[in-house]
Design goal:
Helix content is 50%, strand content 16%. It comes from Haloferax namakaokahaiae.
C-alpha cells in the first residue's frame, strides 16, 4: 500500500510503506541499506563495517535484491568480490527511513 508524502520540492512522491516496513523489521537489512547509502561494497566489507556476520549480510542482500532495493554491480557469474549498491528505489527507501528516523 503506497501513500503520498511531500518532498523538499513540494511535489508528491509515492512511498512504498510495505518495503519500508520490510527493511526496518530486520536490523541486518537496515544495516545493509545504511552501509550501502555510503557507497557500493562487498558483503565482507558490509559485514566488517556493520560488525555483523557475513552470512547474515549475504542473506539480507539476497532479500533486498528480491525487493529491488540493492543490485549486484558485477556479472552474476562472479563468485568472489561481488559488489553491491543501492538501486534508485533503495536510495529512496533509505532517504525516507533516515528522514523519518525509522532506525
Amino acid at each position: 500500500m503506497a501513500s503520498k508524502q511531500e518532498n523538499e520540492a513540494g511535489t508528491n512522491e509515492e512511498i512504498n510503506w510495505n518495503v519500508i516496513s520490510y527493511v526496518i523489521s530486520s536490523h541486518y537489512r537496515l544495516a545493509v541499506l545504511e552501509r550501502l547509502s555510503e557507497g557500493p561494497a562487498t558483503p565482507t566489507r558490509i559485514a566488517s563495517d556493520t560488525e555483523q556476520h557475513v552470512a547474515h549480510i549475504s542473506r539480507a542482500l539476497q532479500r533486498l535484491r528480491e525487493r529491488d532495493q540493492v543490485d549486484l554491480l558485477v556479472p552474476e557469474d562472479r563468485t568472489k568480490g561481488r559488489v553491491y549498491g543501492l538501486t534508485d528505489e533503495g536510495e529512496r527507501s533509505w532517504k525516507i527511513i533516515d528522514e523519518e528516523e525509522l532506525l
